[in-house]
Amino acid sequence: MTRRTVGIVMNGVTGRMGYRQHLVRSILAIRDQGGLTLPDGTVVWPEPVLVGRSEDKLRAIAERHGLAAWTTDLDAALADPANEIYFDAQLTQVRGKALRAAIAAGKHIYTEKPTADSVTEALELARLATDAGVRNGVVQDKLFLPGLLKLKRLIDGGFFGRILSVRGEFGYWVFEGDWQSAQRPSWNYRSQDGGGIVLDMFPHWHYVLERLFAPVRSVYAQATTHVPERVDEQGASYAATADDAAYGIFELDGGVVAQINSSWTVRVDRDELVEFQVDGTEGSAVAGLRNCRIQHRAATPKPVWNPDLPATEPFRAQWQQVPDNGEFDNGFKVQWEQFLAHVVADAPFPYDLLSGARGVQLAELALQSAAEGRRIAVPELHV
Ligand SMILES: NC(=O)c1ccc[n+]([C@@H]2O[C@H](COP(=O)([O-])OP(=O)(O)OC[C@H]3O[C@@H](n4cnc5c(N)ncnc54)[C@H](O)[C@@H]3O)[C@@H](O)[C@H]2O)c1
């Protein structure tokens, strides 16, 4: 058995995503399972180097998890040849500078989305990584959710016949921060800090639509700030300058129409925090984070519109659960394993920085659509 240690500079591990999903649930979970075993028997052993701005926070995380390597000096971490991968879960706005330094140091790049807050910068980063010949990847975790994996299984199995439309509903109430603390960081609500639900969620919708259905050809969006004032982590009021809800319509290659509502100002009357309904000529499905329900053409009721009568059918009871038929691991971890295999053994990894740039492009065009009140075509992007 060959053991291959891979040093990973992990920047932003004091944040929500960096700590919980990437360090604890991915890299430490891979170590807990004894490393990642590749098909040829090689065991990949990820060795994280924690990077951030606060010595106290880094030391506390390192001690909690028995890790030795942490530093506030990114350049020093990048200068160490044992560190082959640079990972970024920092605030979106400060990501570009760190990614450029890592690419210049010859590191392979793996990063949270959005890869940048403008398509110009996102594309520039994709170009730099391509020119430097480094492996590069962006987190596209929703693709690895059990509910969406079941949906993909239905699509691949031809369940839907011709797919007509997709309607997505995402969101929940994010508290304003006054009488109950907000459950998301305040920068999300300030556009000057890279916040906004369009920049946050449309990159996700982009890869979900593109990889499950077809490339997005046009977007129309209405973005708004329903709650204009919020209270931050220090208890101070601030102007919420970023959009907190967006209502988007996307036209896909081949004519599928997708409509996705994204909101931090909606109360949940759904089974899950995100759900996608897909309607096709042969059947329909509703997929969430974990579950997926279906209704086949042959089991479709025939309601007749009559407002004088109460509903005659228990519509929600007429759907059937899609079984798991397998174990679903944490999606962030599964994608990390794929990226490690990509770096060490050249395994395929389609979720690259160019794909991340297409997600940023969709967000940028959606904001333009909202500002101009018109539908906008999505041009092809190339490095
Ligand atoms: N894939 C997903 O589902 C998902 C979900 C949420 C957030 N994200 C992305 O992950 C990234 C981090 O989001 P988060 O929710 O963990 O945020 P967070 O505020 O919890 O963490 C931000 C991290 O960036 C660091 N940072 C570096 N420079 C900073 C600066 N100048 N100001 C403030 N913080 C700075 C912080 O120390 C912290 O470690 C964002 O790019 C976000 O878009 C992805």
Question: What is the mean predicted local confidence, pLDDT?
Answer: 97
Structural domain tally: 2
CATH topology category name of the largest domain? Dihydrodipicolinate Reductase, domain 2
CATH class of the largest domain: Alpha Beta
Number of DSSP-assigned strands: 18
In percent terms, what proportion of residues is strand?
15-25%
With strands numbered from the N-terminus, the spatial order across the biggest sheet is 17-16-15-14-8-13-12-9-18
Q: Kindly state the percentage of residues in helix.
A: 25-40%
The number of distinct helices, counting runs of at least 4 residues, comes to 9
Distance between the termini: 39 Å
The H-level CATH homologous superfamily of the largest domain, spelled out, is: Dihydrodipicolinate Reductase, domain 2
Topology as a string of helices (H) and strands (E): EHEEHEHEHEHEHEHEEEEEEEEEHHE
Outline the secondary-structure elements.
Blueprint: E1 3-11, H1 16-32, E2 36-37, E3 43-51, H2 55-64, E4 70-71, H3 74-79, E5 83-88, H4 92-104, E6 108-111, H5 119-132, E7 136-138, H6 146-156, E8 163-171, H7 197-212, E9 216-224, E10 229-231, E11 237-239, E12 245-252, E13 257-263, E14 274-280, E15 283-287, E16 292-296, E17 320-321, H8 331-345, H9 353-372, E18 376-377
Parallel strand pairs: 1-3, 1-5, 3-4, 5-6, 6-7, 8-13
Antiparallel strand pairs: 2-3, 8-14, 9-12, 9-18, 10-11, 12-13, 14-15, 15-16, 16-17
Helix pairs in contact: 1-8, 4-5, 5-9, 7-9
Bound molecules: nicotinamide-adenine-dinucleotide.
Domain Gfo/Idh/MocA-like oxidoreductase N-terminal: 50-136
GO molecular function: nucleotide binding
Domain GFO/IDH/MocA-like oxidoreductase: 149-285
